[in-house]
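User: Could you check the structure of this?
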Amino acid sequence: MMKKRIAWIDIAKFIGIYFVMFSHFEACPSFVRIFFTPFFLAIFFFCSGFTYRHQDDFKSFLKKKLRALVLPWFIYSNFNIILSNIKSFKHHSNDFRTELFRNLLQIRYYDERMWFIPALFSASLVFFFVIRRYEKERNKGKLLLLCTVLALLRKIYKVYMDPELLPWKVISLPWHIDYIPTALLFMVLGYLFKEQETSFDEKLNWTKTILIVAAYLLLVYVPEIMEWSFAWYVDFFYDHLCHFLGIIMIVIIAKKIPANKPFLYIGSNTLLYFSLHNKPITASEAFLRYFLSGFYQTVLENPLPGALFCTVMTSMIALILIIPTIFINRYLPWTIGRADTRKDS
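Assistant: Sure, the predicted C-alpha cells are below.
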C-alpha cells in the first residue's frame, strides 16, 4: 500500500530542487545564491526527517535505503560519467577509470557525482539510531543538545583540519561522513516538527509570514552588504540561524502555495531531477557560448539579466525533465527504488 503524499512536503522539495538547478548555471548571480544557500539543501534533510516513521528494525530500514538511495545513485551517477566520457560540454581533468573510482569514494570536491544522495544515505543511518534512542527516552533537550554538539564538532573540524594530512588533499571524508552532523540536525528538526505542526499552523498568519521573510532577508543580506566577518564560533551560530530561519520560511511558503500538479509532480521526483538536470544545463550553456556568445557574455557579466536568465532556463528545464521522469517512473521504476506501477494499471 502506497503512503499518502503530503502536499506541502512535495512543494517544499520542489522549491529546493528548483534552486539546486538554478545554482548549477554558471550565470547564477551571487546575490541570488546568498538568498537560497541556507535552505535549498537543508530543506531536503528536514523533509526526510519529517516523513520518517520509526520502526525498530534496522535491517529492513537499511534495505529500504539501499534500494531507494544507493541503487539510484549508483545507476545514474555512473550513467552520467559514461555520458560525459562520450560527450562532455566541460573540461575533463581525469580519465574514465579515475572518475569511476573517485565517484565510489564519494569525497566532496574530489570528482564525486550526485553527492547529496550518498550524503543523505550516510546521515540516515545515524539518524535511525539517534531516533531509536530518542523514542525510548523522549528527551527533546538531550536530543537537540547532542545534535548541536556534533554540528559544533564538525565546524571545529572544518576550521582546524589540515587537508594535507589526507591523501586526497581536501578535508571532506568518504561518503560524506564529515557532513553527517549538519544533516542529522536538520533531519532531527524535521522529525520533531511533526509534533509541533498543528500548533505551528494554528499560529501562522500573513503578518508572521511577512515578518519571518523580512527577518530572513535581513539576516542573510545585511552581513554581506556590510562586509561583516565573524570569528568561527560566531559564524557557527550565525550560519545555523540562517539555516533554521530559511527552513521555517520555506515551510511557511510551501504551506501557503496552492497545490498544483507540476509542483507536486516535480517535488515527488526530486531524486530523478537531481540525477538528470546537469546534462541539459551544460548542453544549453555550450549552445549559447557557440551560437549566441555576445548575448551569453552579457548574461554572465550582469547580475540582473543573469538572474532572469537562470529563472527562465531553470523553469524550462524543470518542465522538459517531466518527460524523462514520466518515462522512468513508467518503464524503469526499479532504477529509483520504486515498484512497477504497470502492475496496478
